[in-house]
């Protein structure tokens, strides 16, 4: 397999970091689910969870970083961290947009009974996992009983005003392919999602984000067990799109781990990959703005972000028309 760096070099493609505008914080690996595609390998028995002093340091640095407009909270289930709400409140008080990457079912866990109301009051942008609109596909990927809880949670969020037309409470859904495939057209699938969820359950949402499964951690193990790793990597390599490479999320995003280490993205974080000359932790910097001077670490898993329409935490990088033009 041709290395990702070789592909960039042969295409004369240079990917430099831009000013850091999005701070993504993986606040812990604790989760009430254990999904097959999870690149974090999160689950109910995970002990990695951000502590108070790390949250304090993030809040302090965030206040000093003028370029950052968005705090993107992920996990695990970020809501299960005891400092989640304090971090959300601090960021919203600074005027930052806050994203909560919610698995929906967490809203029914003990102690989370008022979480949806809290998110509404803080005007948190919810990005919710729903890998399909059918029970069979969702439960094959995420476990028995998950589909109905997810639907119930979406109905609850709609009742609070999330995802409604002319509402400032944003609700986006995330689609991950079931297996070793690239996502279909984001715009086309979004139309299908909206029609099915509205017709079946009266559910509304703002956008559908399609995200390519990353061949690391739990999804990697599944690929290896099913003897699909080589064919999946071939698919990613053969679908490399230089236009998508120009829009990779690590250009204007940095990722902070539960223990305060600094990475280019959540995927590099899970693989513990970074340039040796880059700052290691949030205690080694005086401002997140300084990170725009550091280099980005690339490896072969980066093919997943640059295949086809491209993939980022904000969904597809390109629309289908741009992909067709490239092809």
Can you describe this structure?
This protein is of the alpha/beta class and 327 residues long. The protein has a single domain, classed as Alpha-Beta Barrel (TIM Barrel), CATH 3.20.20. It is built from 13 helices and 8 strands. An 8-stranded mixed sheet has the order 6-5-4-3-2-1-7-8. Helix 4 links the parallel strand 3 and strand 4. It starts with a helix and ends with a helix. The mean pLDDT is 91.
How is the secondary structure organized here?
Blueprint (H helix, E strand, L loop, with lengths): L3 H7 L11 E5 L25 H13 L5 E5 L9 H10 L3 E6 L12 H7 L3 E5 L5 H8 L3 H14 L11 E5 L10 H16 L5 E4 L6 H9 L3 H10 L3 H5 L6 E4 L5 E2 L2 H6 L31 H4 L13 H7 L1
Q: Determine Rg (CA atoms, Å).
A: 19 Å
Order of strands across the biggest sheet?
A: 6-5-4-3-2-1-7-8
The CATH class name reads Alpha Beta
Low-pLDDT runs of 5+ residues are none
CATH architecture: Alpha-Beta Barrel
Secondary-structure content class? alpha/beta
Described by the principal axes of the CA atoms, the overall outline is globular
Terminal residue distance:
21 Å
Number of domains: 1
CATH homologous superfamily, by name?
A: Aldolase class I
Note the quaternary state here.
single chain
**Counted beta strands:** 8
Mean pLDDT: 91
- Summarize the biggest pleated sheet: 8 strands, mixed
The number of helical segments is 13
Query: At the third CATH level, what is the topology name?
Result: TIM Barrel
> Which percent range fits the helix content?
25-40%
**Helix and strand run:** HEHEHEHEHHEHEHHHEEHHH
